[in-house]
Structure formats: structure tokens, C-alpha cells
Amino acid sequence: MTLSTQQLSRRLGALPTPNIGDAMERLGVLDASIKPVWPGARLAGPAFTVWTRAGDNAYLHRALAEATPGDVIVVNGQGDESRALMGDLIGARARNAGIAGFVIDGAVRDAAGLERLGMPVFARSISPAGPYKNGPGSLAGPVAVGGVAVLPGDIMIGDEDGTVVVPRARAEEVLLAAEAVRVDEDERMRTILAQADKKESGVAGACVAR
Ligand SMILES: O=C([O-])CC(=O)C(=O)O
Ligand SMILES: [Mg+2]
């Protein structure tokens, strides 16, 4: 079976991130401080990588011009929380370009505007402080984000629990393993809930007998 990046992103994006992390020996999970900036944000897609000087978003603007529809823009912002690297204006331009979302090791702003746009953004923090726009930075190389190495094209998945990175070279194997984790957990949950139901009806039965 050889799945396209789009198929892999769609199927991985349908799985909870904990199941994907478990399928990678619990590795590949970004630092827990990198969280969705609005509730319900979810993303899945190949990484378009950006490395920028702390607090400077010149290279995010360049990334918008070069990324492909469906890409997730992944930014090593040095973990700096003092200046927002993007907000709803960049978010709106990204939506026009078909970008699937952002994962940022740094801060962002305009959280309410990003939610209105439906643009999924995962970041270390939210700050009203604006960015500098001078560079330097670089595009489309390996980056470190939330303590995990990301190569261009690796598949990013984000949901309410956080963000995981699936190396592109292992994506199909990880997808199948993660789908198996999901099936197994669904089965275990059914068993656990059925035990609770049995116990409840036992209690009800005891009450009736008394
Ligand atoms: O001013 C900036 O570059 C970041 C920002 O708030 C936006 O994109 O709306
Ligand atoms: Mg703004």
C-alpha cells in the first residue's frame, strides 16, 4: 500500500493524538506547553518549516508565499514568548493560501480572530506584543519545535491534547499502528462501560429484591 501525503494526513488527522504518540513508542510528541490557541482547533498536514530569530516574523511572511495548500506552517521561534509571531491578519492570508494551520514554538496573538477564521494555531503562548520584521531566518530546513525535530514534509497532527509529529518516512507504518491502537482502545472502552452497566443493573436488581 502506498498512500499519498494527503491520504496519510486525512487518516492520521482522524485519530486522537495520544493514539498516534503511543504508536511511535510514545515519542514524537511536542512539549505540552504548545497548545491550541482556541478550543476545538485541530490540524493535520505536511510541515512547511520556518526557522526565525526570536520575536521576528519576516520569514513567516515569506513562508506564506512558498507553502503549498494543505501544508502546516511549523515555526522554530526559539521558544520565545515575548512577541507574537502571527495573528489574524497572517491567519487570514494563510486561509486564502489554503494553509492547514500553524505550529509555533513561540507566541501568537489575536486568538479570537483566529478562532473566527477557523484557522488552527498551536503555540507556546499568547501575547499582544507585536513582532519585529527584519529577519534573519530560513525556510524548508530541519527545525526543532517543542523539543522534537521536524523535517519538511513530516506530518503534523494537532488536537485538544497537543501536537505530534509523524516522520514522513514512517508515516504509513505509524498510521496503521495508530489505527490498531484506536480499535483496541475502542474495544477496551466498550468492555469497561459494559462492566459498569452490569454493575448498575446488579444494584438496581438488589434494590428491587429488597
Ligand atoms: O502584526 C503581525 O505581524 C502579527 C499579527 O498581529 C497579525 O498577523 O495579525
Ligand atoms: Mg494582528
Automatic annotation (TrEMBL):
Pfam families reported in the protein's UniProt record: RraA-like (PF03737)
Cross-referenced InterPro entries: RraA/RraA-like (IPR005493), RraA/RraA-like_sf (IPR036704)
Xref: CDD domains: RraA_family
Cofactor(s) in the UniProt record: a divalent metal cation
Keyword entries, A-Z: Methyltransferase, Transferase
Catalytic reaction equation(s): 4-hydroxy-4-methyl-2-oxoglutarate = 2 pyruvate; oxaloacetate + H(+) = pyruvate + CO2
This protein's name: Putative 4-hydroxy-4-methyl-2-oxoglutarate aldolase
Record organism: Arthrobacter liuii
